[in-house]
């Protein structure tokens, strides 16, 4: 049987579909779905201290119904977040379907609404819902991480509403030549022990290993690590630091605005505990735009300057 490879949005009024034009909605694939309750009524769960969800009776029915859906169709759920007023679902279609994934989800939404006592006059769900097709495994993995962190993000932001509010920052260590935007604890700039991370393309494995060992020592001694962490090598070093020092104190210089920043749960905890600071000198650069070489180099230079001045040293 042949099917159209793409279903235009105007033909599916109950869904906002974000997908490649050639994506086959009857074939295998990865999906990230978001469904919101009518008027954002908190029907599905409660989020308790620390960011743990306790499902309501409706939430439990939804979870059981999704498991049943996976036994009816070749679907595999990788992550689900039943929030008080919305549902995030990361799932895969593992083999070709007998009908489109859009129709399967529309039918399921209607069935679970009826099973939980709702109707067309009293709907459970807002219309439309959102269905995103991650274009590769990396994007799908980010969707999974986002979904996993959502309950803790919810709890932190409702109990600490200003936790991630971007602000224009001033501090003796921040060069007045730039406009600084910050999220987090500026007090980290007052740390007497600070180390900047910067890895060059020509740096050998031995040099990077030595730098990593020194960074771990500084962190374990209560020092602050600062850097842009743009390059793969710098990101790998940061991952090693997190593994070695769970209570890492970190200042990151990001190459874009902080206005729409959404951190993973681990970083939220660090903000709450006063261990995290984000800085940027590019408050007008969209987070979706590519990082420019000028901004990246500037932030690496500034990270080194801040670390040196924090310890009363001059830049050589």
CATH architecture of the largest domain: 2-Layer Sandwich
Domains, number: 2
Describe the oligomeric state of these chains in a short phrase.
Answer: single chain
Mean pLDDT metric: 87
Roughly how many Å apart are the termini? 71 Å
The whole-angstrom Rg is 23 Å
Q: What name does the CATH topology of the largest domain carry?
A: Alpha-Beta Plaits
Helix vs. strand class:
alpha/beta
Number of strands: 13
CATH superfamily heading of the largest domain: Transposase IS200-like
How would you spell out the order of helices and strands? EEEEHEEHEHEEEHEHEHEH
Secondary structure layout plus pairing:
Layout: E1 15-18, E2 29-36, E3 45-48, E4 52-55, H1 57-72, E5 75-82, E6 86-93, H2 101-115, E7 129-132, H3 137-159, E8 167-169, E9 180-184, E10 194-197, H4 205-220, E11 224-227, H5 232-244, E12 250-253, H6 265-272, E13 276-280, H7 293-310
Helix pairs in contact: 3-6, 4-5
Can you give me a brief rundown of this structure?
This protein is an alpha/beta fold. The chain has 7 helices and 13 strands.
Give the key terms:
316 residues, 2 domains, Alpha-Beta Plaits, alpha/beta, elongated, five-stranded mixed beta sheet, 13 strands, Rossmann fold, disordered N terminus
């Amino acid at each position: 049987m042949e099917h159209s490879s793409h279903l235009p949005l105007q033909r599916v009024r109950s869904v906002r579909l974000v997908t490649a034009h050639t994506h086959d909605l009857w074939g295998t694939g990865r999906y990230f779905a978001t469904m919101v309750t009518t008027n954002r009524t908190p029907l599905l769960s409660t989020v308790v201290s620390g960011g743990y969800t306790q499902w309501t009776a409706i939430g439990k029915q939804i979870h059981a119904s999704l498991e049943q859906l996976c036994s009816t169709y070749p679907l595999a759920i990788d992550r689900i977040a039943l929030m008080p007023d919305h549902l995030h679902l990361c799932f895969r279609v593992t083999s070709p379907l007998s009908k489109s994934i859009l129709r399967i989800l529309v039918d399921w939404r209607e069935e679970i609404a009826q099973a939980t006592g709702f109707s067309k006059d009293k709907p459970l769900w807002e219309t439309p819902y959102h269905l995103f097709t991650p274009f590769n495994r990396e994007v799908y993995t980010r969707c999974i991480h986002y979904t996993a962190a959502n309950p803790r993000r919810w709890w932190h932001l409702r109990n600490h509403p200003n936790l991630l509010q971007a602000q224009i920052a001033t501090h003796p260590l921040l060069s007045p030549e730039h406009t600084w935007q910050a999220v987090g604890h500026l007090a980290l700039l007052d740390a007497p022990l600070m180390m900047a991370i910067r890895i060059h393309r020509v740096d050998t494995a031995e040099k990077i290993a030595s730098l990593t060992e020194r960074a771990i020592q500084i962190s374990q001694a209560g020092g602050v690590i600062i850097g842009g962490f743009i390059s793969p090598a710098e990101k790998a070093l940061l991952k090693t630091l997190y593994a070695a020092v769970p209570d890492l104190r970190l200042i990151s210089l990001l190459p874009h605005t902080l206005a729409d920043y959404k951190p993973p749960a681990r970083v939220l905890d660090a903000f709450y505990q006063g261990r995290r600071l984000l800085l940027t000198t590019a408050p007008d650069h969209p987070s979706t735009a590519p990082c420019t070489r000028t901004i990246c180099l500037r932030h690496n230079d500034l990270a080194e300057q801040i670390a040196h001045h924090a310890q009363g040293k001059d830049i050589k």
